[in-house]
Write a structure and sequence with these properties.
The chain is an all-alpha fold and 365 residues long. It has one domain (9-361). The chain contains 16 helices and no strands. It has helices spanning 30-39, 48-71, 75-93, 95-101, 110-119, 133-136, 160-166, 171-186, 190-199, 216-241, 247-269, 283-288, 300-303, 311-316, 325-335, 350-361. The radius of gyration is 21 Å and the shape is globular. The chain starts with 29 loop residues before the first helix and ends with a helix.
Amino acid sequence: MEPTLALSREAAGSADARVVQPRPRILDDKTMLRTAAELTRDLNTPNRAFYWGDLIGSAVLGYGALVVAVLASSTLVTVLAAVVSVLALYRALLFIHEVSHMKHSALPGFRLGWNLIAGIPMLVPSFMYEGVHNLHHAKTRYGTADDPEYLPLALMKPWTLPVFILVSLLAPIGLLIRFAILSPLSWLSPKLRDLVIARYSSLSINPAFRRRIPAGEQRVLFDRLDAAASVWAIALVALVATGVIPMRGFLIGLGIGSAVALLNQVRTLVAHLWENEGEQMTVTAQYLDSVNVPPPSLLPGLWAPVGLRYHALHHLLPSLPYHSLGEAHRRLSAVLEEGSPYHKASYRSALGLMHRIGRSTMVRR
């Protein structure tokens, strides 16, 4: 899933902004593109057992740990259970990325199941990503002003990075406002409804992005999911206000939600190099501006689960199911020669990537 914070592109354009040397255009490496397509043709079928088992298992663990965190009398147990809950619910939530890419006929009922299990309870229904994330993968949009999920963060001022990360802690409050207040009010005013849909119904970071008003079957699905999330948000507020849900339990849940959002924002920060200034890029250039953090590192499996540790490979083969990305990476790494651009998108750790991006923002005129 991409992030929740929008920063102005103007942060990169003032007189004291970073010096940016013109970069040569990166041409497509046709050998890499052809090899990637040919070697992975047998990996495109989603495995139902993987999807359903992974989602349900993550949700059960996450919600179960949340209950333990709320009911525990020991601070240590509360903290440990909360950590488990964050990691498990984060994994369950990130299936929104798969939902936005999959052919729903290949996994009947999975989108509905995901919304019922994770999307609606966590106030991130699938429409927050569907119809938005696919624009990030459009060859003519990636890295441009029309990309909802891109800003030249590496070229902005140094203060933008900590703000970008820390503001995500407010995401649960923002989602409650969106669904408990704005959504029901928007049903009373068509003008407000259009504004809420265009401005406050997508997980995007580009402040200039406005999503199109859905029509036909997409509008029906949007309205149903929006209404369901709104009912849940209002019920949650009412249960807390009447004392049915203790304030302590609510605050622990809110804290877990904030930690999930923070973890996702950090992952988003290191998913790309963020070095494009708005020009159209070739597929190879888009790949090289994206990041793989493959094994033997173990931690990326926690902070970039559901295949997102192979984010660059995902941009190369966006329709590949998450459980196939590891095998695809092994095949391509073995076949493509050392000089291939494919190997240049692999990095060792999130800390190294954060240091690179942070250092880039420190270069001044």
